[in-house]
Amino acid sequence: MSSSAGKKRSLQVQHIFVALGLTAVFFYIVFYMVVPTALAGFVVPLFTPTAEQQVRTPFVKFDGLVWATSTAEKAGAAKGKTVSKEYINKEFIFDFTAKARNEEEHGYTKVGSEWYAKAPVLGEHAIYIEPYVGFLLVAFVISIAMMIVVTMFMPTSLGLMSLLFDRQIEDTKIKLRLQTGFADHIIELLIMPDDKLKDKDISEVRSPFRLVWDRTFTEDIASPMQAMRFEDVFRIETPEDLVKFRNDFLYNRIREFFSEFVEKEIIDIKEALLWRRNKMLISKGFKLYMSHHFTEKYSNVVTGMAYGGAAFLIVAVGIRGLKFIPATRPSFILLAIGLEFTLLALMALTLVYTEEEERMDKMLKKMEDANRSQLEALRSQQADIHQLANALVGQTASIIQARVEKSIEEFMTNADNVEKIIGQQIAEKILISIKENKTR
């Protein structure tokens, strides 16, 4: 959405293509490059032979993501070479490549879609990891997360998240107008970034700010700010005073009269407008979208998915306990762990941006203030109607009587009107006489 147009831009084909394209590129990089390198960097140091063992059997780094122990005589020649049966002693072998191996040529067997890990600590048999089962989901989630971050920096016309952030700014503005009843120009002043508000002339904001001040009046004696008059507080000498008045006084009154949630909406929109000007400030746009859209709409969905992932993990661990998943094939367990980790991370992120529930006593107090305000408005309307009725019945009764008498006099002095009325009366008398004769 263009900030100048002030209208919500709909989702276009280019947003979908850019998002899918970035996801595909990131998935290829993560799954085929990052995941094997990261897993090798995690596993190999854990099971590397001790220094004493390496004196007898050196631990050699072969070409690619392959490590294995060799003999002291062949270790120097084996470094950087393709793994081969003649260079290894089969005690320690770690192979995280996508290449098939066979016993005759390489000294161990695996297919291209598996990773191989063998060490005395891991047991008698080698461990086979299937990345397409254990890490496909994790790589896909990471690629989506990277796509989301990148599209936050992109222009609104191309970036998916940039579009969603921009639309959320306008949606939250509409929500604010409905919640507060303030006009568009007042909402714009309330959410305006501080540096732009400093450039405003005092005459432009005095009347809107006074309206907000009067509208947010409550009879809460615990709040000394409620007893202050607008003229006593609105003493602006510098642009900083104008910003301070809005941020300290108006925001506080809005929080007390409406709710903390309304105040937070105003502040979050104000910060999101900074993201609209500078796309590098992604945290400000992300906060508005998560707090006022995602958590409100998908919080229960995320929680349900997290519980579902936990159930899946429990089943996977139970099957493993029943020996239906062999220890040498832990890919299904890795899938369950990765799924649950992803869902719990999403749930944690959702909880971070979820608004805290307001205390019930505060909510009741604000409802009471709102009802009192509506009652005062009805009383004011009743007084106005009563004054109007008194004016019609009392003060202007003589004027109305004079106008009625004048209208009757004008009607009776008109000869045509008199003749018309006499004719109608004679006709009615004749019709009555005829009806009476017929009945006799």
Description:
The chain folds into five domains: 14-134, no CATH class; 159-280, no CATH class; 295-352; 359-395; 402-440. The termini are far apart. With 440 residues, it is mainly alpha-helical. The longest helix has 40 residues, at 282-321. Residues 1-5 have low confidence and may be disordered. β4 and β5 (127-129) form a beta hairpin. It contains 18 helices and five strands. The radius of gyration is 40 Å and the shape is elongated. The relative contact order is 0.07. A five-stranded antiparallel sheet has the order 1-2-3-4-5.
Largest sheet: 5 strands, antiparallel
Give the count of structural domains: 5
Structural class: mainly alpha
Mean pLDDT: 84
- Uncertain runs are 1-5
Number of distinct helices: 18
Arrangement of strands in the largest sheet: 1-2-3-4-5
Proportion in helices: 55-70%
* Ends apart, CA distance between termini: 91 Å
SSE string, helices as H and strands as E: HHEEHEHEEHHHHHHHHHHHHHH
Percent strand: under 5%
The number of strands is: 5
Overall spatial form? elongated
**From the alpha-carbon coordinates, what is the Rg to the nearest angstrom?**
40 Å
Summary of the model, kept short:
By secondary structure, the protein is mostly helical. It has helices at 13-47, 51-56, 75-78, 103-106, 131-134, 136-153, 160-180, 184-191, 194-198, 202-215, 230-233, 239-257, 260-277, 282-321, 331-352, 360-395, 397-412, 415-439, and strands spanning 59-61, 66-69, 93-95, 115-118, 127-129. It folds into 5 domains: 14-134, no CATH class; 159-280, no CATH class; 295-352; 359-395; 402-440.
